[in-house]
Design goal:
The protein is α+β, with helices and mostly antiparallel strands and 397 residues long. The chain is built from 17 helices and 7 strands. It starts with a helix and ends with a helix.
Amino acid sequence: MKKEHEWNLIRSTILDPAKYGKEQDARSNFPEIQVKGLRIIVTAKAVRGHVRFTYEGKKVSRSLGSCAHDELEKFLLDWVRQVEQYNLRLSQGLDPFAEDEKSKKDMTFGDFAKEVYLPNARATKKSYRDDESRLEKHILPYIGGKKFDELNVAMVTELLHEAKAIGLKPATVNRIRALLSVIINLAIDHELLESNLMKRVKKLQENNQIERYLSESEIQRLWPILDIPEDYGIANKTIAAVIKFLLLTGVRKREALDMQWSDVDLGKASWHLKYNKSGKARYVTLSEDAVAILRAMPKTSAFIFANPETQKPYNDIRKTFDKIMQIAGITNMRIHDLRHSFASLAVNSGESLFVVQKLLGHASPQTTQRYAHLQSSTLHQASANVANMIRQHSAIN
């Protein structure tokens, strides 16, 4: 095992931003890694391992997978060991990848999901924890032990029916279906299947137009709890601050939990949100109240709303969220409904749908259009106010 200072040197060399997007021959570019054939490609989000040899006069290559920057040490060790085995087979005159092809045929869905899909998801998806949870709870118990050529439409349909039967909403069941489709598409890329059977599995009907907004009285009950959570038996002040921040900004839960000090300019009240659902970076303008929340957070971690025990972002805040809602006497409320509430307050304060679209970071105006009925009610009230004023003036005259 290399010493920490050696790993620091390797990390800084490999993760040099000047090398982003360029395929680097490990043995030539990183003297600390003396293994033939290993190639490393670094992007702003991830590190990809690749191996390339010449066998029987032909170029042969293989992907070794991807990892996040902070997982480099573990994955690099695995890649080096794997490529060393390939080199050993090559030195014996054998096809370096023959054993891989044999083992691929014996790979189960569960093996592939854990060994191939999840490492890629961790490196490229902010929501990979949701994928892990859906796999463990709703997919692997049913088909984890099946080989890909054993899967069929009836089997997968039954899996989704079971998820619905335990009370999951159609939207959640559809997320499980989508995850299955993504994993199977990746298996096709690895030549384990020829077609995606999920194309024959129908999506459930969703009703995305039902929105839940906090009422004025609910906000009045909720705000004191978020202001002084300890007075109401809430020990986790960090999560209380997150909930308050979500309501004041309308950002998504994961965006707030992954927020870093390096992305925020408190003087300019600006937050550079690099990664979001739309895939496009944007700047979020923060109100004075939102800035005040950030200024009150301790700078003990790179992450603003860090878990004090791990100094990493929280995986889930639902338990404390539900407790706060219960104390406030608020029912049927999800964390994402704080985003809807922010939009509702913005529209009802007279902001146009275009402004609300920009505040929420929607890529398409169609997504924001769901709040049009709120704007209509606001305009109706404004029209009624004008009529009342006319009647009052008429009565005076």
